[in-house]
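Appendix B. Worked example

We walk through a single record from start to finish. Start with the input: the chain for ABC transporter ATP-binding protein, Lysinibacillus alkalisoli, length 287.
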Amino acid sequence: MENVIEFHNVSKKFASFEIDQLNLKVKKGYITGFIGTNGAGKSTIIKMIMNILQPDTGDVHVFGLQQPQAEKVIKSRLGFVYDQNIFYPWLNLQEIQKMIAPTYPTWDQATFLHYVEQFELPMKKAIKHFSKGMQTKASLAIALSHHAELLIMDEPTAGLDPAFRMELMAIFQQVMVEEGRSIFFSTHTTSDLERYADYIVVLDQGKILLHAPTDEILQNYVVVKGSNTLLDRDTKAHFIHIIQETHTFRALASCKREIADIFGEHVVMENISLDELIFYLKAAQRQ
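Next comes the structure step. The output line below is what the pipeline stores for this chain.
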């Protein structure tokens, strides 16, 4: 299956943070959610995709083309949606599109007007007077109007109320399904991932802790609870991370069926949320 983004042994070192030999493949035609706490490295990776930052070592490919050699071609095929306004705040959409349209050979004015109407955006109102949700919709309308094949979104729903956030995520999914685009977005809101992402990448301290299809994660990963008497060297090996208390334990496992076969009715298995999954994966990484 073709990959729209590939990182090959990418390293980037800062004074207090490091990405070391990172490998990542993002599949074409899917929504990939990128999650991690502040400082995990999400923005650094997005900036390297866009060639705002360059890796110290390793290669970054987008559409099979290498950055920075093919930067101009890559950027003409990318769309960006940020968590804050990136346009001149005193300009309106009519003025902004006149500035942006000539920079894209594939700009489609009819498509732009279609999304402006669909998103109910005023053309002659200064961007600074848009709500945060409207600013995000404006960025998306512009990204879609030059037929971007890949949408890169950095916290696109941050700070939005739940209803507005769900509306935007539904739009992202509709765009991907109907027009065959790929979406790569970072977020702190795990409910967005559970509902809409096809794949999830969990990042912590510059390392990928997990990269898998969302449905497989939610079906197979479980929190297991039971008595400490069940734990020995062999049974412990079936868990990713274990938290032991005075008489009981709770642990993360990646295969529900395997745990059921080993422990039977002696343990309780609970479906895991993405927030819990991140907690256990980070704890396992640091033990």
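Two observations about the output. The chain has eleven helices and 14 strands. Residues 222-271 form one domain.
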